[in-house]
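My main concern about presentation is that the manuscript never shows what a single data entry looks like. For the editor and my fellow referees, an illustration may be useful. For illustration, here is how one protein appears when written out as sequence plus structure tokens:

***
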Amino acid sequence: MALTGRAALLAALGTLPVGIWEPSWTGILAVNGPLVLACACDAALAAPVRRLGLTRSGDNSVRLGETADVTLTVTNPSSRPLRAQFRDAWPPSSWEPGTEVAASRHRLTVPVGERRRLTTRLRPTRRGDRQADRVTIRSYGPLGLFARQGSHKVPWTVRVLPPFTSRKHLPSKLARLRELDGRTSVLTRGEGTEFDSLREYVPGDDTRSIDWRATARQTTVAVRTWRPERDRHILLVLDTGRTSAGRVGNAPRLDASMDAALLLGALASRAGDRVDLLAYDRRVRALVQGRAAGDVLPSLVNAMATLEPELVETDARGLTATAMRTAPRRSLIVLLTSLGAAPIEEGLLPVLSRLTQRHTVLIASVADPHVARMASARGNTEAVYEAAAAAQAQTERRRTAEQLQRHGVTVVDATPDELAPALADAYLALKAAGRL
């Protein structure tokens, strides 16, 4: 059988001897001497690892679920060509499970005095900052018998941002906003709306909108038109305590709350309102204030990227006091938290009046769709017990929501897929009613 590649080379050097021979020190040296010499020559011709120059460039941020490309530029200043295998190490959550080995390993040849680029494609599975670890290089000689190995620290950070999946609802909510804003034929009147213009009366108009002074100056009846007030203050409050760590589907409740907050923030900033963000459990985790309309959404996304649920009970008194300091004037405070009976009754309700006296309060909570499926399950004893438990949980949530509503709070309770549009609709309803 013919030998090819390394096997042929090793046979030629004597490590695959043909026939029978009597081992002796002389024979061993005679047979392996050429191999030792070949390895020594191969080692001498392998490019040194420590002298290589490595720099990074590429993406600094990426939305969760998308890909980021980070380029590594390798410069070979030595007098020997580089034939190497690279391992570009990142945290395990930088790739989907099972793809790390293929994505992080590269082969590259760099001629003497030249530079080459290799690209590592990341697809993170968690939000937050992903820090590059070390780059390990294995430099081979021309025969591939010997390799030098070493590592370089080449810092780089990729920030993984929230995915903002509810962005798809923004066009329809903006269309509704334009109707409220008087850019279409639909004009509204509410307690807190602003005067817009005069037009001729048509049957069906509210007679309270007739402008009698303007009517006296012309031959037709004139009515006032109104538009919702602008420049209102919206404070988005994210509860990052232990209840936000509960998983609904494949993600924590906090992620669904952030997605809803992003949609509302984008909508409110387009409506001309000022939007701030506060994330709190027992201390302030994130604070965004005083951003211009065009900078609101990027600032919110960047602040939310590194937020993680904290396994502590939220300090409702501290949260209320911080919200009052952040919003000293009348505002719409949107609190994204749990509707669990214990956290609301023992934590929020005793201090809620401090908020409702000065502000309009809206509470949004993530409901678990699995509970609704359990409530409708039938067929065997286990399913009936699950349905009873789910019905009890739903009753408790409704009772908690009713308690909040009696204090003048608007409550939105919806599943992760429905929470963002439902919260946006609640904001538009408050704006249409002139309650902002």
Summary: The mean pLDDT is 85. The two ends are 87 Å apart (CA to CA). The first strand starts at residue 53 and ends at 58. The chain has twelve helices and 20 strands.
